[in-house]
Amino acid sequence: MDRILVTPILFAFGFISFTGIQSQPGHPINIVNITNNEGIQNATRFAMSAYNNQTNDIFVFKVKRFNNATVQVVKGYKYVVEAVIGRTTCRKGKPFNFKDCPFQPKPPLNREFVCYYTVWSIPWEKKWILLSLKCQ
Ligand SMILES: *[C@@H]1O[C@H](CO)[C@@H](O)[C@H](O)[C@H]1NC(C)=O
Ligand SMILES: *[C@@H]1O[C@H](CO)[C@@H](O)[C@H](O)[C@H]1NC(C)=O
Ligand SMILES: *[C@@H]1O[C@H](CO)[C@@H](O)[C@H](O)[C@H]1NC(C)=O
Ligand SMILES: *[C@@H]1O[C@H](CO)[C@@H](O)[C@H](O)[C@H]1NC(C)=O
């Protein structure tokens, strides 16, 4: 749905920078309705997949709630997100769908962390790049 509307605009940006004419990166825009933002959802899936790959917890973590998020046009989209993540009951090593992974209900397994991640998406190259990821 989005694609039809968004792609030509992004192509225009790509074209402008490709021809050497200065392209103006936009300012970061605060996303109000984070849960319904497809770009943030994609960026989050990507960041959480990287997080789960890098940690040696036996369970999968996923986002519990978003604190805030911005999007900025820079040869694509740069998403900056702050979110609270929690440990789910899904074990790593098996295919899973984040949607079907409930959070751990009880201590001591119901851990939470605050994560900050920056994901850069270049839709016309089908590229997703994790620029930073920090959870504490
Ligand atoms: C967020 O978006 C959804 C669907 O587009 C809508 O139903 C909901 O009311 C929105 N929430 C806010 C706080 O704008
Ligand atoms: C989100 O990901 C889906 C599936 O890969 C893709 O079709 C869609 O264009 C993406 N949207 C955004 C805004 O990144
Ligand atoms: C996580 O690991 C899986 C399996 O090795 C891989 O397919 C996937 O691309 C990785 N995700 C990220 C974001 O690194
Ligand atoms: C994001 O939300 C957290 C928690 O509500 C808050 O502490 C932080 O200052 C916010 N950051 C920005 C950039 O708005």
Automatic annotation (TrEMBL):
Q: Name one GO biological process term.
A: negative regulation of microglial cell activation
GO MF annotations for this entry?
Answer: cysteine-type endopeptidase inhibitor activity
Has UniProt tagged this entry with the keyword Signal? Answer: yes
Provide the Cystatin domain boundaries. Answer: 23-136
Q: Which residues form the signal peptide?
A: 1-23
Alphabetical list of CDD domains matching this protein: CY
Q: Which GO terms describe its cellular component?
A: endoplasmic reticulum; extracellular space; Golgi apparatus; late endosome; lysosome
UniProt keywords (A-Z) are: Disulfide bond, Signal
InterPro entries reported for this sequence: Cystatin-F, Cystatin_dom, Cystatin_sf
This protein's source sits in the domain of life called Eukaryota
To which protein family does this belong?
Belongs to the cystatin family.
Q: What is this protein called?
A: Cystatin domain-containing protein
Which species is listed as the source? Callorhinchus milii
